[in-house]
Amino acid sequence: MKVHIYIEGGGDGKQLRTQCRRGFRLFFEKALSGKKMPTLIACGSRNDAYKDFCTALKNAKKDTLPLLLVDSEAPFSGTNNQWAHLKKRDNWQQPTGATDEHVYLMVECMESWFLADRDCLKKYFGQGFSENALSGNENIETIPKAAIFRSLKNATRLSETKGAYGKGKHPFEILAKIAPNKVTAAAPNAKRLIKFLNNPS
Predict the structure, then answer these.
(1) How far apart are CA 125 and CA 40, in angstroms?
(2) CA angle at residue 43 from 189 to 84, to 5 degrees?
(3) How far is CA 194 from CA 23, 76, 151, 165, 190, in A?
């Protein structure tokens, strides 16, 4: 089965989308430990990711499985009823033929994953990084998106090597470096994604 993942991220620019694909590719290469890699499509906005996924699902061949990977953007508990969440949050209809097996959430955002690997953040941002400024909540999927960004900004504002965390500057470099096993241990929805990719139906 060929898995194609339609990912929220990368903005409108070609360079940033390339960085997005590279970051996820390096993350998945470590997470899937030699298993067949999915094809990654950086779609830019979450609405574009949804539209591209719907088109791919409608036109998919029997040997191709399209998946949608987007931020939850809001509180999401458990690992079920993704489409119900997206209907409530974005008014997205569950496409014909789509099940919860087709959709995966980064709760509440991709940057939540970074807090699972503080050692990586410390090494990446170097001198001036303040780990104490990060949220102390180990249940990273319960931390609001605004708090995630605020803690990253506060922890990195004195970084001498990388500067303060910036949405267009650092995220995909960090994604490429964090340890997937730490992410899946801290984020049930990330664990659900990796488990599926290790054995797609």
Answers:
(1) 27
(2) 40
(3) 15, 18, 26, 26, 6
Q: At which residue do the structure tokens 């599926």 appear?
A: 196
Contact 111, 148 (CB under 8 A): yes
DSSP 50-87: HHHHHHHHHH--TTEEEEEEEE--S---SSS-HHHHHH
Q: Is the same domain home to 21 and 84?
A: yes
Same domain, 9 and 30: yes
- How many residues are there in the chain? 201
Distance CA 145, CA 114 (A): 12
Domain of 137 in residue numbering reads as 112-156
34-85 per-position pLDDT tens digit:
889 999 999 999 999 999 999 999 999 999 999 999 999 999 999 999 999 9
* The pLDDT value given to residue 168: 74
pTM of the model: 0.96
